[in-house]
Input
Amino acid sequence: MSGYDRFASVYDRLTGNVGYAQRADYLFMLLKNAGVATGTLLDLACGTGSLSVALCEKGFEVIGVDGSFEMLSVAREKCAPFGDRILLLCQDMTELDLFGTIDCAVCSLDSINHLTEEADVYETFRLVSLFMNQGGIFVFDVNTVHKHKNVLADNTFIYEEDDVFCVWQNTYYEEDDSVEIFLDIFTENQDGSYTREQESFCERAYSDAMLTDMLEMAGFSVQGRFAELTTDAPADDAERVYYVCKKVTPTGTTGEKYE
Output
């Protein structure tokens, strides 16, 4: 799984429309409705820490985990005022190793899609379950097959924010509903010139049937599937779907089915 190392310094400026406060409100509502409104929360693939901060402000003790040291460097500055209420760890999702148990977990903004091997998705689910208390709640979102095939597809997108210009180019692969993403990032220097940096990564979309099977093997029961930022069932053309899952059985072992 590729990191966002070169993307880290401009990530917040190019994702200003994400609405972290609104997403934190939504995630808190889903967690509370599922029976967890306090305790220790894992923010998996926490990025620059905006969501970790927003969820900590709602009363959670937060463990933020991300595989990019550069993204965590930005997060560390945001999280510093919260002291030991936010712990940041640099770990790959597939090698999650916590110091204790958690009451709930979130994984936002299609981070699961960055795992392009079925075995890695299952292993991530298994490890979240391993460190989660019985009855704990795991909420995550994914980009759908529809979005990969019909929205991202082979399209190019342009993002411009003051002194940052980004060209986002996609290549879609129908055989596994994956999209290879290439970023050209131009940052303006004080003399008016621009520095160009490049980043690339791949995302894969998974069917609901496959995700549900992996979750159940890992000890979770899917309590609900929702269209983005709603409590409505996702339509066929939904681009992002949120899963609310409850740990109901002991953690699964190795997932031979997905090796």
About this structure: The longest helix spans residues 20-33. The chain has a mean pLDDT of 92.
